[in-house]
Amino acid sequence: MSALTILIADDHPLFRAAVLRASQDAQPQAQRVEAASAATLERALQAHPDPDLVLLDLTMPGAHGFSELLHSRGEHPQVPVLMISSNEHPRVIRRARQFGATGFAPNSAPAEVVARAVADVLDGGRWFPR
Predict the structure, then answer these.
(1) Distance from C-alpha of 117 to C-alpha of 123, rounded to nearest angstrom
(2) What is the pLDDT of residues 68-112, one digit of tens each?
(3) What is the pLDDT of residues 111-124, one digit of tens each?
(4) Which domains does the chain have, with CATH numbers?
(5) 0.70 cut: is pTM over it?
(6) Strands 81-85, 5-9: parallel, antiparallel or unpaired by DSSP?
(7) CA–CA separation, 5 vs 33, rounded Å?
(8) What residues contact 32, with CB distance under 8 A and at least 6 apart?
(9) Which residues, 6+ apart, have CB-to-CB distance to 19 below 8 Å?
(10) 31 has which bridge partners?
(11) Closest CA to 79 of 96, 58, 62, 102
């Protein structure tokens, strides 16, 4: 069985490192690929067209609103996308779900919560804040 591949797309290096660490807690053996913009995410998806999970920041260079979620879901509908954002407004979370996100983890969530969200989504579940 091959190792899982997790794409982490966030433009903030410190937060990307924190998400990387949380994903390591959830799935230590997984290969991780990082992207810091919409363009680098799209290149990463071309190089790794069947990742097991995409962790996607809502706002990063080259993205407009939910454009990267819509693009990822359109091009790779089988790949679960866990949105991560500092915008925790219920409307944003609802829209992420409507546009096909498999989950939504707020930036304010502790690392353990993000790790749990990653694990749940990798296990085939959905994860949204209550």
Answers:
(1) 10
(2) 999 999 999 999 999 999 999 999 999 999 999 999 999 899 989
(3) 899 999 999 999 99
(4) 5-122 (3.40.50.2300)
(5) yes
(6) unpaired
(7) 7
(8) 5, 6, 7, 8, 20, 23, 24
(9) 8, 10, 55, 84, 114
(10) 5
(11) 102
